[in-house]
Sequence to fold (118 residues):
Amino acid sequence: MIHKASECKVEVREAMRGGEKSVRITHFFDENNELLSPTRLCAKLELAPGASIGFHQHDNEEEMFVVLSGRGLIDDNGNQQEVTVGDTILTGNGAGHSVKSLGPEDLQLLAVIVPFVK
Fold:
């Protein structure tokens, strides 16, 4: 299956999870109809400088990020670190996290959320 970038569904969420400003989400696949694996999200997240995703937890699932561009501050269950292009983040199983774009360019992340299979 091949999707052209122009075919991907795009949504904008304001104050995502209690964060600041908006997050642009480009969904690569329709998680409900196109993916056979129990994937809850497979998307690119774009946060303008100063935008953030508020602190939240993932229970019974993992979230993986790859930083595609920009600089960000990740709070991974209390461990705060600056991240940049090529860095990867893995969180979930009851751990909490937040994301903030530090600028000067947009923070772009590849994000995948996969529930645990029981």
